[in-house]
Design goal:
Blueprint lengths: L2 E7 L3 H11 L4 E8 L6 H15 L5 E3 L13 H4 L21 H11 L4 E5 L4 H9 L9 E5 L15 H5 L1 H8 L5 E4 L1 H7 L1 E2 L1 H8 L4 H8 L2 H11 L4 E2 L1 H10 L4 E7 L1 E3 L10 E3 L11 E7 L1 H12 L2
Parallel strand pairs: 1-2, 1-4, 2-3, 4-5, 5-6, 6-12
Antiparallel strand pairs: 7-8, 9-12, 10-11
The structure holds alpha-D-ribofuranose and calcium ion (CA).
Amino acid sequence: MKRKFFIDTDTASDDAVALIIALRHSDIEVVGIGVVAGNVPLEMGVQNALYTRELCGSNTPIYAGASQPLSRELRTAQFVHGIDGMGDIGLDLKGRQPDVGDAVDELIKSAHEFEGVLELVTLGPLTNIALALQRDPTIANKIKRCVVMGAVADHIGNVTPVAEFNMWVDPEAVEVVLHSGMNLEFVGWDISRKFAVITQAESTMLRAMNTPLATFTIDIQRVLEKFCENETHLAGFDLPDPIAIAYAINAGVADEVREMHLVVETHSPTTEGMVVMDTLGVLHQSPNALVVTSARHDVFMSMLMDALEA
Ligand code: RIB
Ligand code: CA
């Protein structure tokens, strides 16, 4: 029996690679994909997800979700991934129709249909998840686990000095999720920065696979590559969502996880969106999440290459 996954995404250039890994993995069935505004406005994220699904030859349903955070204006990351989110390389990213249904309602339905076995993976802001929990709090105990690409275990942010983008877009949604009682597992941007950077040599090696998915995977990182060179100063481009989904599928991607108590900042203009992780347990609060604190680049790369094969 295949494991059942539901993926929530703000589809841009790294999300797309995460969708490829999931849609092409033989051990899992993606029962639904919900799209949320984040990296790009909602409609762009929907088109990017539909385009990626088509490349994978998949018929997994894709549903549009929230176009705005719970109570804030949307702040996108088009400066990171491009205006279209896919590297602005001229892909035909319009005119595809999403499946009929709302991502929030479809997540709730899937939690009930696959009670106890549904694995939820979030690759963007948590707006859809928070709305689903508000609409039906019982899903918190029906969803087996929720793997979140978000936050940073070392508190070195990518959108402010201390906040990671997905959490920063909608901190109020993070607060709802942290208080929901769901089994939460965080794969932070620190894991991407340390264990999912694709160097120039690896990029060349992936492109040399010479498959449509490998070429697509490299081509759409054009704008991200520049952002990493000039802003985050990494030794290549990093793939946060792909390493998060790889961990969700194969726990062996992580070589250290820790239980911690997490709190999100929703008020301070300096630290809003920061997910404070009580590393030393000084708050003496019971843990509310598992946090991946170290991972295996080699295991991740092997899963990525398997997904990109013809
Ligand atoms: O901080 C990295 C996260 O923000 C990734 O999910 C990326 O796609 C953006 O959504
Ligand atoms: Ca994302």
